[in-house]
């Protein structure tokens, strides 16, 4: 089991939290009893607990019933609902390790998930995911990414995964200008100097990269993401595009993921679940606003039309409906 | 100032340690007084204190005299002696960050120092160095390495620096065979498939790599380091060679660094200081044994012949003479 999230609290708060977890574990156990599962209780309880509370419920449940709550959930519920609840129950770094592992196996269509995880999270959060990946898979994340890719794509993905970017706010404007030009040259020609573009995108701090992207727009009359879209025909260019979008404005990026997931014939439940579960306790509220501004439809309403059953109830609960 | 090393201890031990640090700070302050410095006291005190004690002395000195002990030392002593004491006084991860930074500026002749740091330390220790580098230089280590190199050499160095290798003991023997063959093909031809060799060396766990190097020897009749020596004419091949030696047997590697440092006309004091200071509290005793076995001369005697003055006294103190 992954390390629990440690939060400082008073002894009284600890006792109360423990009692609550105990009650939740009991209620869940009751929901599993007999034929069928009381899915409503599962959604009501787990959908309204914080990451810390969920870890405590899992621990308490295991101590009380000598059974892993996650394993029990897997046998009680199924399909997209199961997958969403399972992911929701994992500690965040551990969840991202699982998502990255699945994405590596998915090959070409999983690259965006890997890029998203390591480009949106803070440098210290990425390290936590890499540590969780060690614990689960007895390999390093970069090791598995590298073994499944080649050429420039490998260089870019492994660089993004392995980078421990400086997290400070310092900007070097001269460097932003030089490197905006390098990126421009690199993207312009199809056989450009990708080595340098990869170096810049995988090693510079996010603040410095934002300055570089702004400078690009000022000097070259269009945003670097628009320019890249013209060329985004292969996996490498698509990966470049995704990385830049995740670094420049990850809320806008997530809005697009949701929009595409819902627009598809046969909704992309994995994409939908991923964004809702991973951002619910972070900035899902902002992403909902971006979605509304872009589509003039509330995200909840758009989702409600596309999915159904317990999965729908659970996702809408996480959306705060 | 860098983070202090935290060691658990009882309140009584804490009080005693603090009192000792206080006395040491006073004695050092006295050693700096008047014309000239009492170098003997500096050597006797600092040369016999653990990493934790040195950090405590530095803190106590600053509180008591409103002055950074390191700055004061810089103004009191000079030359190789100063450099050795300064490095000895830094917290290990911070010291390696400084060594790496100097090495990057040194260009081609500094590559081995960078490779040595990130290949000998444990994965978690490498992260600590990368964090210390952020704190000091407001850049990431891989960012500065990448900006100063190109091509395959960049790929190898950045890969070694950025990797967070899995630290477990699992070995996949089949993989060891496949990758021993890939390494063999890659080194054999001058224009080999370096991409794959770089992938293997920068991402696999050290235990797995040892199995691969052993398999190489079994299947190809010679050690991979010997084979590489035949080709080690350019910076890239030299870097490959250094990385493999640091991963296979770092004590043997350090013995060679010391041997070369002493053999040179005009001793390489930086190399000598680096090995003695960084390994003194780790495995310098073993390295001394390896040195004796290889040269039939005690390391202390070899060093005593080549250097002199306070620098010599200090280095011999760290060697336990």
From TrEMBL, chains A, B:
Entry GO CC: cytoplasm; plasma membrane
Family matches, as Gene3D superfamilies: Annexin
SMART domains: ANX
Chain residues that bind Ca(2+): 32, 34, 36, 76, 264, 266, 304, 306
One Pfam assignment: Annexin
Keywords: Annexin, Calcium, Calcium/phospholipid-binding, Metal-binding, Repeat
One GO-annotated biological process of the protein: response to cold
GO molecular function terms listed in the Swiss-Prot or TrEMBL record: calcium ion binding; calcium-dependent phospholipid binding; phosphatidylserine binding
SUPFAM superfamilies linked: Annexin (SSF47874)
Keyword Metal-binding: yes
Domain notes: A pair of annexin repeats may form one binding site for calcium and phospholipid.
Family: Belongs to the annexin family.
Protein name: Annexin
UniProt source species: Vicia faba (Broad bean)
